């Protein structure tokens, strides 16, 4: 991929090994290892200068493997951690020093936490103090309530995987329409990642990618959007090929300013690469 910019950032990926301790309440167990060396090769193959690692849900709150990966590759990588609401400020500061720039709430098929409790409110205050963001992974019909609660705490909010709409035509998905409305406030970010999680069929996924980006640029602006590969494509390892990602990256390259904002400027600022 050719991009005449300072760099290219992959804003969403995971690294892990199958012999790591897994969370007892995990939704699934991954099918294969995703070592750091393979991820770095993936970055190089797609012309990416930097990457952002996201703590996988099946590893629970033990962020140590991700932290080790970041330490081995600084300043190329940053991370987004999963933490319990009882986490202390010294523990968060240690994560901050280790290259962590935010926390993730992954409730795609789980119980939605009560963010109004004292413990969650205290955690969100700490997140704000560290100038981190809160990354939300949930289905689109739950998005609006989550966004409203988080913005009351004045924290930066990042939405995963296009907000996980249930319809391949985003204009028909009510939750996605609510995401667009929140986007007009200028207070949230959204990741252009995991289109295949809306439709595993390549043609349909590419069509969704193009139409969703048009709506998101129109309502959020390209300065609030970031691209992510979602490597290693957990649960879709066999369907997603390098060509699939290249096709979608090439869609972004049609507009020079769009390319600069989505692939570099926006994620570089949010994830503290600059």
From TrEMBL:
Task: Give every Amidohydrolase-related domain span.
Answer: 9-273
Q: Which UniProt keywords apply?
A: Hydrolase
InterPro entries from the UniProt entry:
Amidohydro-rel (IPR006680), Aro_Compnd_Degr_Hydrolases (IPR052358), Metal_Hydrolase (IPR032466)
One family from Pfam that matches here is Amidohydro_2
Q: Which domain of life is it from?
A: Bacteria
Write out the transmembrane intervals: none
Q: Name one GO molecular function term.
A: hydrolase activity
Q: Does the keyword Transmembrane apply?
A: no
Q: Does the entry feature the keyword Translocase, yes or no?
A: no
PANTHER family, alphabetically?
BARREL METAL-DEPENDENT HYDROLASE, PUTATIVE (AFU_ORTHOLOGUE AFUA_1G16240)-RELATED
Q: What is this protein called?
A: Putative metal-dependent hydrolase of the TIM-barrel fold
């Amino acid at each position: 991929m050719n991009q005449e910019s300072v760099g290219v950032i992959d804003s969403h990926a995971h690294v892990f090994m199958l012999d790591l301790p897994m969370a007892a309440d995990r939704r699934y167990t991954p099918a294969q290892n995703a070592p750091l060396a393979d991820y770095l090769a993936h970055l190089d193959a797609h012309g990416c200068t930097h990457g952002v690692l996201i703590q996988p849900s099946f590893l629970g709150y033990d962020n140590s493997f991700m932290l080790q990966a970041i330490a081995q590759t600084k300043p190329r990588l940053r991370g987004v951690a999963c933490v319990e609401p009882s986490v202390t400020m010294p523990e968060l500061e240690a994560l901050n020093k280790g290259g962590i720039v935010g926390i993730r709430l992954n409730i795609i098929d789980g119980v939605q936490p009560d963010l109004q409790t004292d413990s969650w409110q205290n955690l969100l205050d700490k997140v704000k103090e560290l100038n981190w963001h809160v990354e939300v992974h949930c289905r689109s019909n739950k998005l609006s309530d989550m966004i409203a609660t988080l913005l009351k705490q004045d924290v930066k909010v990042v939405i995963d995987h296009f907000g996980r709409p249930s319809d391949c035509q985003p204009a028909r998905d009510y939750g996605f329409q609510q995401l667009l409305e929140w986007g007009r406030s200028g207070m949230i970010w959204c990741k252009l990642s995991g289109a295949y999680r809306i439709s595993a069929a390549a043609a349909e996924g590419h069509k969704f990618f193009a139409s969703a980006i048009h709506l998101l640029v129109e309502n959020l602006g390209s300065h609030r959007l970031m691209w992510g590969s979602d490597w290693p494509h957990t649960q879709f390892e066999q369907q997603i090929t390098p060509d699939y990602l290249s096709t979608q990256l090439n869609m972004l390259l049609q507009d020079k300013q769009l390319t600069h904002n989505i692939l570099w400027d926006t994620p570089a600022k949010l994830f503290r690469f600059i």
